[in-house]
Structures are given as C-alpha cells and as structure tokens.
Amino acid sequence: MTVLSCHGVRKVFGDQVVLDGLDLDVSEHEVVALIGASGSGKSTLLRCVNLLEELDDGTIHLDGEHITDPRVDPDKVRQRIGIVFQAYNLFPHMTVLENVTLAPVRVHGVPRTAARAQALEWLGRVGLADKAYAYPDRLSGGQQQRVAIVRALVNSPRLLLLDEVTSALDPELVGEVLSMIRDLKSDGVTMVLATHEMGFARQVADRVCFLDGGRVLEQGPPEQVFAEPAEARTRQFLSRIIEAGRL
Ligand SMILES: Nc1ncnc2c1ncn2[C@@H]1O[C@H](COP(=O)(O)OP(=O)(O)OP(=O)(O)O)[C@@H](O)[C@H]1O
Fold first, then answer.
1. CA separation for the pair 186, 237 (Å, rounded)
2. pLDDT at position 247 over 70
3. pTM (2 decimals)?
4. Which residues are within 8 A (CB) of 217 and not within 5 positions of it... i.e. 6 or more apart?
5. CA 12 – CA 15 distance, rounded (Å)
6. What is the share, in percent, of the chain residues with pLDDT greater than 70?
7. CATH of the domain at 149
8. Across the strands, what pairs with 11?
9. Residue 24: other Cβ atoms inside 10 A
10. Ligand 1 centre and the CA of 92: distance in Å?
11. Which residue, by CA, sits nearest to atom 2 of ligand 1?
12. How far is 105 from 155, CA to CA, in rounded Å?
C-alpha cells in the first residue's frame, strides 16, 4: 500500500528551481533515505510533504488523499505526519512529558489523559520512561533528540519525516538515536529521512534516493546505490563522500 505519493513536485525560491517535477512513492513500512549534495532539496521536499512549504506545481497524496489541495486543513494533515528536525527544539521550562503532549493537546485536540498515556507508552518503548518528569537540560543531546522523535510519534502518524536528526549530535551520541530509528523500523513505522550520513542511510534505509537537479536521479537498495551507482552524477557524489571518509 502506498502511503506517500509525490508527483511532479516543483518548488522555486526566487529564481532558483529547487524541486523540478520530482516524483516519489513510499510504501507502508518502508524507510526511504534522501541523499544528495547540500542544497539539492532534501529538506525542502520534507517541508513540502509536511505542508510547511507551498508547491509551485505537482501534487502530494497521503494514503490516497490529495493533501496539497488548498482546501485541506494543514493541521489535520500534520496530525498524520510527524517531523523531526536537526535542532530538537524542546521547551526548556517544560518537562519531557509536557513537551511531548503539548501539540497533541493544544493543536490537535487530543484529550490530555489520552495524550499522556500515549506519551508514557512511547517513552517506555524507547527507554526514556524515567525521564518523563525531567527537564530537557537534564538530558544528553541524544536523549533530547529521542524525546523530539517521541513527540513526533505521539499521534501515531502514518509517516515520520526525519531531517538530519543526527547532524547536531556528538559522534558518541549518534548511536542511540540510530538504534531508536532501527527499532521504529522494526515496529513498521514508515519513514522518509534526509541525511548526510551514508552509514545511517545504509543501516536503516530500504531504499536510497539520490536527489540531483530537483529530481530523484537514481534510487535503489542502499547496497546497490552505494556499491554500483548507475549514474555518473551519483558516482561523483559518492566518490566525494568517500574522499571525505564518510562512507
Ligand atoms: N525559505 C527559503 N527561501 C529561499 N531559499 C531557500 C529556502 N529554503 C531553502 N532554500 C534554498 O533551497 C535550496 C535547497 O535547500 P534544502 O535545504 O532543501 O537542501 P538540502 O538538500 O536539504 O541541503 P542540506 O543538505 O545542506 O541540508 C538551497 O539552495 C536553499 O538555500
């Protein structure tokens, strides 16, 4: 079953065409990694899917519903699509539990008790139950990012978008976030992630999509794209990454 379907997506900033007729379908339980040079539009695509950017052309469907139709309420859609950014942006004056339940209660109208129960269940599943009443400054960066991921999961979204979620972390903290994402994958969470870390893409993705020229130039299982890229542009991108010691 197709969860996400992007068709002919075009996004222009000023005179810069960032996405140029991009097509991408994501199946239920699939984990798709977007890779590509800095500025190739990975974040922009995730922001378009979460309706944080308006499309200049094309359509996006979620579970068959046309969500980029202007009549659609973006808040209703965002209840079904979780997004996590590089900066975890937890509110420092709120406990972990308050941070995690804020949007479901305030924005999406979920009753407080139901939101708390769901939040506590998720925190337990990811090994953070004992942090529910802690304030963010008591947590490591890795723990804070895991809380931010839980915050995106509390509504049981159909799709989870992860934008460079390990980039701000010290190397020794990356592992715990990766391991959480692997657990989510085992739980069947459908995810699209943008990353500079090819090791991350290799470890969690079912499919890697290389963005170039505003489209998906090449895609396939990580072992195929990384070992035998078909396109010259992909080979060039990967060889630079290998030179930088990041593959
Ligand atoms: N709100 C905006 N206004 C103007 N230009 C923007 C805006 N958002 C993104 N861009 C431009 O669009 C291009 C694509 O940016 P985007 O962040 O999507 O790329 P990316 O592949 O995620 O890059 P990175 O790997 O560096 O995060 C960049 O040139 C960026 O400067």
1. 30
2. no
3. 0.94
4. 210, 211, 231, 233, 234
5. 7
6. 99
7. 3.40.50.300
8. 19
9. 21
10. 28
11. 13
12. 10
- What are the two backbone dihedrals, phi and then psi, of residue 12, each rounded to the nearest 5 degrees? -120, 135
Tokens 């980039």 found at? 167
Neighbours of 139 (CB within 10 A): 18
- Cα 39 to ligand 1 centre (Å): 5
User: Which ligand 1 atom minimizes the distance to the CA of 46?
Assistant: 18
> Is-contact 129 102, C-beta < 8 A?
no
Task: Sort strands 57-62 and 65-66 into parallel, antiparallel or unpaired.
Answer: antiparallel
Going by C-alpha positions, the residue among 72, 78, 14, 21 that lies closest to residue 47 is: 78
Q: Which of 15, 17, 42, 44 to mutate to test the pocket of ligand 1 (most atoms within 8 A of CB)?
A: 44
Nearest to 108 by CA among 148, 77, 141: 77
In terms of C-beta density within 10 A (0-12 exposed, 13-18 middle, 19 or more buried), how is residue 148 classed? Answer: buried
User: For the chain, what is the domain count?
Assistant: 1
Ligand 1 atom nearest the C-alpha of 53 is 1
- pLDDT (0 to 100) of residue 191: 98
Number of H helices, E strands in the chain: 9, 10
Q: Which residues line ligand 1 (CB under 6 A)?
A: 13, 16, 18, 36, 38-44, 194, 196
State in Å: Cα 16 to ligand 1 middle: 10
* Residues spanned by the domain of 136: 2-243
State which ligand 1 atom lies nearest to the alpha carbon of 45.
18
Q: With beta carbons less than 8 A apart as the criterion, state whether 80 and 103 touch.
A: no
ipTM of the predicted structure? 0.96
Band of the pLDDT at 246, cuts 50, 70, 90?
A: low
Element (H, E) at 125: helix 112-125
